[in-house]
Amino acid sequence: MDPKNSWWKWLGFVLLLYAIPLSWIGKVSVQGMLHETIRNLYYHVSMWFAMLLLMLLAAYWSVKALATASLGHDLRAASFSSVAFVFGLAGVATGSLWARHTWGTYWTNDPKLNGAAGALLIYAAYFILRASIPEPLKRLKAAAVYNIFGFVMTVLLVGLLPRITRSLHPGNGGNPGFGTYDLAGHMRPVFYSMVLGFTALGAWIAQIKTRISAVEQKHLIT
Amino acid sequence: MNILKIFSCFIGAINLAWLQALSGLLAQTQLDSLKTTPVTDTLVNFNRLVGGITAVTLPGEQTLPKGISLTPDGSLLGSYESLMALRDPLFFKLETASGDFYEVSLSGRQQSGKNFVLIQSNLIEMATGWRRDGKIWVVVASALLVFFAIIGFLLYLERRLRKVEKSDHA
């Protein structure tokens, strides 16, 4: 690994190395109903934050791909999207488990849950769209435009709509956010380290995937 | 007998442990005589109920109404008049020396001329004992092992990939 260009991998590694033990044994705030599951904040919520950051990077590569018509940027956008998608699936699964033991059910008609499911479907359609266009430059254009749209929709569905409707989630529908008093001061650094650490880990996986795709594509063309 | 009931409810710590027993006791002994002369006194001593209270915290921005105060060792001080005048129940958390947390809601109510103090308490279970006996480190070690395995695998993948990329250029 080239040490000059991979400082962020090591940064992510160190952040997770710091955060994972503290996620188990660090001091957490005591909340009725949540009890010890408040530690899920470190895994469930950071999955979503990391997913959004990876999707933002995918949208960035999509803009670059549109601007330069470079197939490499197109591959990057696809890889970051797919890792973000996996993180999103993990977010749904962990959230569902958490909901079962706090709200009493695996799935409710909460706008945040349905919004997240919608966002994942949008990205599922992105992969189908990519697979259905064999011509690389055409695929680049269609996929990049759709990816930017998908990112904006995800921010709206996950970040904005639940805030202006009724939702069980903290910080939504008039509920106090974790930031106001639930998220005690000593939980904050662990949580942010988790978010950035998982983002770096996801970006690393996406980079490997991009490079594999690049090698594959080269062999398909020649 | 009443005190025993209170104690068992508190320790039992199940939702909706309405401690009518306590209120009945207080009503018979002192409340009616206090009606005419407001006295600042200990309304409830939580330390006597659970023992070893080390901290009392009010959630969020909640403030105690005028005439009522909470001491860090779990005594509710104030006049019964101000307690009876409460519109919403008081919410707070108690932490004991043994590491247990209780969520308490408390309100006053007048019924057929008698004053009642209603206490609802709920033990918030945390993994305090689990952490104290040290075995949580097994889980931390396992989580780190999984993490190292993933990082190691990524490094290995990268190395193989670099080989393929190099031979591709050649």
Keywords:
heterodimer; A: 222 residues; mainly alpha; Four Helix Bundle (Hemerythrin (Met), subunit A); 7 helices; 0% strand; B: 170 residues; alpha+beta; 2 domains; 4-stranded antiparallel sheet; 7 strands
Describe this structure in words.
The complex is a heterodimer of chains A (222) and B (170). Chain A has 222 residues and is mostly helical. Chain A has one domain (12-221): Four Helix Bundle (Hemerythrin (Met), subunit A), CATH 1.20.120. In chain A, 75% of the residues lie in helices and 0% in strands. Chain A has helices at 7-25, 44-68, 71-102, 111-132, 136-164, 178-182, 188-221. In chain A, helix 3 (71-102) runs antiparallel to helix 4. Chain A is globular, with a radius of gyration of 19 Å. Chain A starts with 6 loop residues before the first helix and ends with a helix. The model of chain A has no long low-confidence stretch (mean pLDDT 89). The model of chain B is unreliable at 7-39 (pLDDT under 50). In chain B, strands 2-5-6-7 form a four-stranded antiparallel beta sheet. Chain B has a three-stranded antiparallel beta sheet with strand order 1-4-3. Chain B has six helices and seven strands. In chain B, 21% of the residues are buried. Chain B is 44% helix and 27% strand. Chain B has two domains: 2-126, no CATH class; 133-169. Chain B is elongated and about 95 Å long. Chain B is of the alpha+beta class and 170 residues long.
